[in-house]
Write a structure and sequence with these properties.
Elements lengths: L1 E3 L2 H13 L4 E6 L5 H13 L2 E6 L19 H11 L3 E3 L3 H4 L19 H4 L3 H16 L3 E5 L3 H13 L5 E5 L19 H6 L2 H14 L5 H13 L4 E10 L13 E9 L2 E9 L3 H4 L1
Parallel strand pairs: 1-4, 2-3, 2-5, 3-4, 5-6
Antiparallel strand pairs: 7-8, 8-9
The chain binds pantoate.
Length: about 290
């Protein structure tokens, strides 16, 4: 497995592979890999001849009081995991390689989809994501790119961006990977103390409660959100940022579940902000 640090080297490698008719799948990451990232690699392996993983902690998507400086980084560990999962090449640029002029003048902003949910408490975050993903797409020129469902809003933003800007890249979503107790895998889980880690299960517990109530016939969003809020508030370290039930395509808030929805939440556990989500009623279309 190759590790390339320079954009020119990546372009040359990709060009040679494309001349041979090989198709490239890209897995963009910020590193500190876990099973969630590796499931993206496995999905990419199935559909492409070559898998490229980018590892870059993108400063543009962090707010001034967020964890850019402390975000966990370990390229040697990541390279080992990536190689064993079947990555052919890692692109791991330095900050100056990606942003010779920082902040750069040109950014990519996706309106509407980026405004609600995490866009409220993380202004500018999705512009940072869309900008760096555009740059990665232009550097690697993949046929397909893979993103995790845990960042559902990010997936929708990138999919819309690719469609709006006619990028000839298929944007794929891979289901959430969970720990044995249900906590969604995230590089940020490493910030949790043992006690916080125990309490963090409240996110998935709330989502499962919502699913259970919905399956029992409750489709009123306010009542479902109230039940989820009560479940999360049982944990002393938990502070809710948001709990929303939204149209699964547009992210418009729904007062009732009468179509495919995403139940999405962001909760601080101590100082660590965690997100999770669940798609509900997704087979409604099949019943029409
Ligand atoms: O999901 C992530 O890890 C990041 O937001 C991404 C897509 C790699 C862009 O920096």
């Amino acid at each position: 497995m190759l590790i390339l640090r320079k954009i020119a080297e990546v372009r040359q490698w990709v060009q040679e592979k494309k001349k041979q008719g090989l198709r490239v799948g890209l897995v963009p990451t910020m590193g500190y890999l876990h099973e969630g990232h590796l499931s993206l690699v496995r999905a990419a392996r199935q559909e492409n001849d070559l898998v490229v993983m980018s590892i870059f902690v993108n400063p543009l998507q962090f707010g001034p009081r967020e964890d850019f400086a402390t975000y966990p980084r370990d390229l040697a560990r990541d390279a080992d995991l990536a190689e064993r999962a079947g990555v052919d090449m890692i692109f791991a640029p330095e900050g100056e390689e990606m942003y010779p002029y920082y902040p750069q003048d040109t950014t990519v902003q996706v309106a509407r989809l980026a405004e609600g949910l995490c866009g409220v408490s993380r202004p500018g975050h999705f512009t940072g994501v869309a900008t760096v993903v555009t740059k990665l797409f232009m550097i690697v020129l993949p046929e397909r790119a893979y993103f995790g469902q845990k960042d559902y809003q990010q997936f929708l933003v990138i999919k819309r961006m690719a469609a709006d800007l006619n990028m000839p890249i298929e944007v794929r979503m891979v289901p959430i990977k969970r720990e044995a107790d249900g906590l969604a895998m995230s590089s940020r889980n490493t910030y949790l103390s043992a006690e916080e880690r125990r309490q963090a299960v409240c996110l998935v517990a709330a989502l499962r409660l919502c699913k259970e109530r919905f399956e029992q016939g409750e489709n009123n969003s306010e009542r479902l959100i109230k039940a989820m809020t009560a479940r999360i508030n049982r944990e002393p370290a938990a502070q809710i940022d948001y709990i929303k039930i939204c149209d699964a395509d547009t992210l418009e808030e729904m007062s009732r579940i009468d179509r495919p929805v995403v139940v999405a939440l962001a909760v601080y556990i101590g100082k660590t902000r965690l997100i999770d989500n669940m798609l509900l009623n997704t087979d409604v279309m099949k019943n029409v």
